[in-house]
């Protein structure tokens, strides 16, 4: 498997990543088997989102017992304010069974919220150690 640097971060991600949308349609056991097979094949980038129903929960269960440095975890939020984002990230951390998210992304643009407010909320998560990089 080839790996590349993710943007300006120090994260080295596999060229082929695992997207969390499809596991909404399979059992937790099937999701875990698929994720673990991917890890065995060298996939280390796992992407999901709060909006993908039970994807975060299934991924969190699948990754139980796997050392945290063996994968890069990305998730997304539709929250834009500090308060809403704090709730979202805490839920994602709990469901994904981890202490931090490697890449936390805005899921869609919201013209009603000033970008400065959103960026401040994201930055506070980095400062708190809950997020390593934002997108």
In words, what does this structure look like?
With about 140 residues, the chain is α/β, with parallel strands linked by helices. It is built from four helices and seven strands; from the N terminus they run βββαβαβαβαβ. The protein has helices at about 30-40, 55-60, 80-95, 115-125; strands spanning about 5, 10-15, 20, 45, 70-75, 100-105, 130-135. The strands form two sheets. Strands 3-4-5-6-7 form a five-stranded parallel β-sheet, covered by helices on one side. Strands 1-2 form a two-stranded antiparallel sheet.
Main sheet strand line-up? 3-4-5-6-7
Count of β-strands: 7
Beta strand % = 15-25%
The low-confidence runs, each spanning 5 or more residues with pLDDT under 50, are none
Main sheet summary:
5 strands, parallel
Structural class by sheet pairing and helices: alpha/beta
Number of discrete helical segments: 4
For the residues shown, what is the average pLDDT? 94
What is the gyration radius calculated from CA atoms? 15 Å
- Taking the alpha carbons of the first and last residues, their distance comes to 24 Å
Element string (H = helix, E = strand): EEEHEHEHEHE
